[in-house]
Amino acid sequence: MTNFKVTDLVAKKHPNTGKHLQIGIVIKNQKDVLSVRWLWYNKTFFMEKEGDIFKELNNHHLLSTVHLKHKDANTILCGLSHNYLDGQHQDNQTAT
Q1: Are 70 and 28 in contact (CB under 8 A)?
Q2: Which residues of 62-95 are buried (b: 16+ CB within 10 A; e: fewer)?
Q3: Nearest Cα to 20, choosing from 52, 3, 44?
């Protein structure tokens, strides 16, 4: 189980292709809930090319803040911060 921390950069990946669908930052980590503020989304995947109405809806809904239970967050998010290595959190460990 990955323990995300405040300021960690995270991504939601497509389950089949592994491409990033959304990238965000952890803004709050409470006992049971993790809050992520989305900063970027894959514009091609989310139909932005289909018209201005989709651009407006995407910006409103896909760049919002979400609150995820820790067990759910660990199944859909992956860490992108420099302190993650192959999906495993490395708490400032140095090689010996």
Answers
A1: no
A2: beeeeebebeebeeebbbeeeebeeeebeeeeee
A3: 44
Q: Which helix (H) or strand (E) holds 59?
A: helix 52-62
Q: What are phi and psi of 49, to 5 degrees?
A: -70, -10
**55 by DSSP, 3-state: which?**
helix
pLDDT digits (tens, 9 = 90+) for 35-84: 999 999 888 887 666 667 777 777 788 899 999 998 888 888 999 976 55
CA-CA distance, 36 to 34, in Å (whole number)? Answer: 7
The model's pTM is 0.74
Q: What is the chain's Cα-based Rg?
A: 15
